[in-house]
Amino acid sequence: MPVECQNDTRFIADRMLGTLTRYLRFMGYDTESANSLEEGNTKEDTLLLGMAKEQHRILLTRDAELARRAQGQAIYLRSEDVMDQVQQLIDYRVIERRLTLSRCSLCNTKLREANTCEIERTGYAPRDWRSTRFYWCEQCHKLYWNGSHGKQLETRIGTERNEESNNLP
Ligand SMILES: [Zn+2]
User: Fold this and answer.
1) What is the pLDDT of residue 158?
2) Ligand 1 centre from 169 Cα, in Å?
3) b/e map of 138-153 (b: 16 or more CB within 10 Å)?
4) Cβ atoms 148, 87 nearer than 8 A
5) How many A from CA of 141 to the centre of ligand 1?
6) pLDDT digit string (tens) for 107-122?
7) Measured in angstroms, how far is the CA atom of residue 46 from the centroid of ligand 1?
8) Of the candidates 32, 48, 53, 154, which lies 20 to 30 Å from 164 by C-alpha distance?
9) Which ranges carry the Mut7-C RNAse domain (predicted)?
10) What pLDDT was estimated at residue 137?
11) From CA 36, how far away is CA 22, in angstroms rounded?
12) How much is the CA Rg of the chain, to the nearest whole Å?
């Protein structure tokens, strides 16, 4: 299984933060999204506040008023840029710079290692896959691997392998 720490902070993100939500999931953080709720609920803010409280999640929002209402249970994200948003959360020490590929970016489900059937049945898997590690979302039936896509994200998020090994005790 991909590595994920038990005591990680959990999040719930508002509708403005779809990209950040995907990035946090790639980074292994349990992140629910307002985008998975039905649209058009006029009391959505109250619903999000309630979910944050009940599920012990930090509410991430681009809405300063909503952040204020959360009374310490929310983080107001200053920038529209996803990399600035990631950096702000790192600066606040609520997340670490890392890439785990341990959660589905679409639905937040924990991924497990994919079996040969699943890899072979998936048309978009790279043809030469024997040296690659694959992960599977049982909810979406989506295959993940740390190929070129993972590499790109890794570069963006800044988790270079050697940086990681330097941090080992
Ligand atoms: Zn999924």
Assistant:
1) 74
2) 34
3) eeeebbbbbeeebeeb
4) no
5) 7
6) 999 999 999 999 988 8
7) 26
8) 32
9) 9-156
10) 96
11) 13
12) 17
Give which of 93, 92, 97 is closest to 24, Cα–Cα. Answer: 97
Helix (H, G, I), strand (E, B) or coil at 136: strand
* CA 73 / ligand 1 centre spacing (Å): 27
pLDDT in tens, 25-74: 999 999 999 999 999 999 999 999 999 999 999 999 999 999 999 989 99
Residue 35 Cα to ligand 1 midpoint, Å, equals 14
Q: Three-class SS of residue 143?
A: strand
Q: Identify residue 4 by its one-letter amino acid code.
A: E
The Å distance, Cα 64 to ligand 1 centre, comes to: 30
Domain boundaries, the chain: 11-91, 112-166
Task: Compute, in angstroms, the gap from residue 74 CA to the centroid of ligand 1.
Answer: 26
| Secondary structure string (H, E, C) spanning 36-89 | HCCCCCCCHHHHHHHHHHHCCCEEEECCHHHHHHCCCCEEECCCCCHHHHHHHH
